[in-house]
Design a protein that fits this description.
alpha/beta; three-stranded mixed beta sheet; globular
């Protein structure tokens, strides 16, 4: 299994999707629905885009778990990576969310599916920090490098450094925090719109880190293990080129297939040279999701990766030694043994 690329993903099929007005204030990537378009039309178009992503990932050999959501009060539920992350070794993290109407996106049935199908040892729940105004929106706020054990975080309302420290202590990551802003000085709301970290390649908008020294430190840490860096421009970030994710699929014959999933809009924004660098280590799988991107997120935001070991599909075969241990000894149970004991009278 790859430390970076999950072999399975969780998608939420949000039946009542629309851009969330509660997140528009600090999400500069969010846009309005076309004037005159009905909510039903928007939702219908978004559902087709969600289904297209699920199909593309399955066609690439990725295991896809899809959950439906009919609740109209959860417009951003299509982005589960903000409340959930999974980690090698069997740990699941649940996160505190900035917008109050996103906090009930957390779903017990998703967690139960993970426990039933994968080896889950513990669930670490940070969501109780919400009443204190402390937020860390999962792998939207953090971009994790499981190889170097670094958590890259752009400062924002959605990434509190105190809970980040707790996460890094619990999951053995080193925090690397920096400021990231657009050309107008507006802070980036989520780190995963400006950075994607794969096994052998990283796509990152270093030019959006204004501190030259910190920018150099981020570049050095990303490339210290030989990983190649594709530097993105702010224009490409606006096209969601930074919001991609590396996944582990399979070819029909069972061979491993590493893909980089992104939107078609993001793919079109890449130069030929950038594409060549990415495709040296993984295959680009691009899906057109213009309606969902109105909400300010793209393919990476739609995917909660499953980095857990699957439970065996069938009971393992017993070896001779295990069978010998499992054999019931030919002895009487307690009731039978008692019936064989001589009666002892206590009467005088």
């Amino acid at each position: 299994m790859s430390a970076v690329a999950p072999h399975a993903v969780i998608l939420i099929r949000a039946l009542r999707f629309h851009p969330n007005p509660a997140t528009a204030a600090d999400n500069a990537f969010q846009a309005e629905v076309a004037e005159g378009e009905s909510p039903d039309t928007t939702a219908f178009k978004a559902l087709a885009e969600m289904d297209a992503l699920a199909t593309a990932l399955r066609d690439a050999g990725v295991v896809v778990h899809v959950f439906e959501d009919e609740d109209h009060t959860r417009p951003d539920s299509v982005f589960p990576n903000n409340w959930l992350s999974t980690h090698a070794g069997g740990t699941v993290a649940v996160y505190p969310m900035y917008a109050s109407n996103r906090r009930h996106e957390r779903r017990a049935d998703v967690l139960e599916m993970l426990k039933a199908n994968y080896r889950v040892q513990a669930i670490v729940d940070y969501s109780g920090l919400e009443p204190d105004g402390i937020f860390l929106e999962g792998t939207g706020a953090m971009v994790l490098d499981p190889i170097s054990r670094v958590a890259y975080v752009a400062r924002s309302h959605r990434a509190d450094t105190n809970v980040l420290e707790r996460f890094c202590t619990d999951f053995s990551y080193e925090p690397m925090v920096f400021d990231a802003v657009d050309s107008g000085g507006v802070p980036v709301y989520h780190t995963n719109v400006i950075a994607t970290i794969g096994t052998d390649v990283a796509m990152v908008a270093l030019e959006m880190i204004p501190d030259a020294r910190r920018r150099a430190e981020v570049r050095e840490r990303l490339s210290v293990n030989g990983r190649r860096i594709v530097e993105l421009s702010e224009r490409q970030v606006r096209e969601f080129a930074g919001n991609a994710v590396e996944l582990a699929g399979r070819w029909p014959d069972g061979r491993r297939r590493t893909i980089m999933a992104m939107s078609a809009r993001a793919r079109r924004s890449l130069t030929d040279a950038q594409t060549r660098v990415i495709e040296e280590s993984c295959e680009i799988v691009a899906v057109d999701i213009p309606t969902i991107e109105l909400a300010g997120g793209s393919v990476r935001c739609m995917i909660a990766g499953v980095h857990l070991d699957p439970r065996p599909a069938v009971a393992p075969e017993l070896t001779d030694a295990v069978e010998a241990i499992a054999e019931e000894p030919e002895t009487m149970d307690g009731a039978e043994a008692a019936s064989e004991l001589p009666l002892v009278s206590t009467a005088e």
